[in-house]
Amino acid sequence: MLSQKKYTFALLLMFLAVILTGLFNISLGSVNIPISEVTSSLLGLEVDKDTWRYIILNYRLPKAITAIITGSGLAVSGLLMQTLFRNPLAGPYVLGLSSGASLGVAIVFMGASIFGASFAAIFLSGWTLVIASSLGSLLVLFAVILASIRLRDTMAILIIGLMFASFTAAIVSVLAYFSPASQLQQYVFWSYGSLGNLSWNEVLILGLFWIIGILISIGSIKNLNSLLLGEQYARSLGTNIRKNRFMIIIATSLLAGSITAFAGPIAFVGLAVPHLVRQIIPSANHVTLVPAVIFGGAILMLLCDIIAQLPGSEFSLPINAITSLIGAPVVIWLLVRKRKFNF
Amino acid sequence: MSAKTSNIVLKTANLSIGYRKKKEVQIVASEIDMEIKEGELIAVIGINGAGKSTLLKTLSGINHIIEGEVFISNNKLSKTDPSELAKKISLVLTEQTLSKNLSVIELVALGRQPYTNWIGRLTKNDLKKIMHAIQLVNIEEIKDKKCHELSDGQFQKVLIARALAQDTSLIILDEPTTHLDLYHKAYVLKLLQQLSRETNKAILFASHEINLALQLCDKLLILKDKKAIFGKPSDLISSEAFNDLFPSHLIYFDKESSSFKIK
Asked: Is residue A104, in this structure, part of any structural domain at all?
């Protein structure tokens, strides 16, 4: 589309904001480390205290990177789904990915009481949750992809995603109903989401999925723009609708699926960030929107994580609650102030 | 027109249109033979359900051909790749799902997609074509407005500009005058006539505005009783093709004034 140069400055500012919030995110926590020490530690220079370096490299840096990956990945998936379904209420989870993951995890935690203790003994190892939620997501994903190959109508896919969500949520409820309180609590804790439990190996795997997902999204930019006109126009412009739709679903699944597997079902970011970004950058062009949403998602997630860990205290709040607590008022405020909804 | 040899842009041979439902074939109209040349303005008319939209969708490759063949500049439509077809036929649809958050110029620019690179970068040539399309339909003044700020008449012009920017030899419009008042109906159809003359593109549109179409079009395709009649307005009038287009108890075709009158 036309020159997007007028937005280059805004994008540059957002990128700087990502780096700044990233530094603050690493600096703040139960122990506050000065920003100058954070930067020298990241640059491999001398640091005053060895414990600081240890905290930064082994705990805070992987968490900050996870926050960036999670926020940006979910936000991009949200943007892809909103454009594909031409629906402002669509988000990364409309395909039922998070409900699939929830089902997998619910079976691990709560299935033990139903399927017997031996089941739990076999499955409750370090990678259990990741594998269980991946399997759950994959199951739903295959069903949705099968449907998308058969179906001509994109809206039907949206409905099928919602149906899978209800269906799996129902199974989770049944499991929860028969589970003892302790196991139910474990499941609830998982559903709060968490950024801080990842080892460097896990961050690397998550990062790999993220890169592939983001690259496919960038490759879809032209087709996403044609979808702004609706499917019939897009087809008349030479877009291969089915192939394009398939690629968009794959990108979303890789991003949202891997993030849910490693960090839990983090809500809100994917739905809200594209809207927040559109209020700041009133462009419909995905050449601008995709990078803006990547930066916006990263910033929001880093900020929410700063708040969630309650700097200076030993406590931390569930990230999933913070994203909505902070994000929802901001979206409402922006919409009311502008009195105009850009979609 | 007769002095220069006009090229055939679109031709149908014994075309049947309709829908396939599993093994069942539902034919909407058959034996459609038409020939559209460069620079011609052609209307498709017929009562609701006669198959106007189905015909346009079939010609633009959205629906499958039931029988017969469609030739786009001498190539079979069924053998034409969608990305090639996008350089030959552009559409103006009644679809209302498109994002009105686009600015006018952005929407027109999307017409260049068949020619741009993988990320959609516009070259100088693309920009020239976009500005030319905008000038042709007189929307320079609103080019930076968002589409949701426009009136229906303005928006229709923007959609036509987008089709022009796609730079195809044929533009197909599905009922471009719905939602418009009488003045704007006449304005849009007159604009189409002008564009066909100025750009030498063939323009095919479906419409219920028979009276206006008779005055402006080079040829008409009438869809009636699952059959098609194709010809010049004067020939169609003299062959009394309009007389039984509608049920006769309410309106009739007045040959003197070439228009429909209420009984």
From this structure: yes
Nearest Cβ partner of A240 from B62, B82, B110? B82
What CATH number does residue A216 fall under?
1.10.3470.10
CA-CA distance, B206 to B45, in Å (whole number)? 6
Question: Which alpha helices (H) appear in A178-263, and where do they start and end?
Answer: 181-191, 200-219, 221-227, 231-236, 241-263
Kindly report the length of chain A: 343
Cβ distance B62 to A235 less than 8 Å, yes or no, reads: yes
The distance of A223 to chain B (nearest Cα, Å) reads: 9
Contacts of B166 in chain A (CB under 8 A): 237
Q: Summarize pLDDT for B170-213 with one digit per residue, the tens.
A: 999 999 998 899 999 999 999 999 999 999 999 999 999 999 99
Domains of chain B: 1-88+206-263 (3.40.50.300)
Helix (H, G, I), strand (E, B) or coil at A47: coil
* Residue B113 to residue A235, Cβ atoms within 8 A: no
In a domain, A208, yes or no: yes
Does this model's pTM top 0.90? My answer is yes
Tokens 């909407």 identify what position? B28
CB contact under 8 A, B122 and A86: no
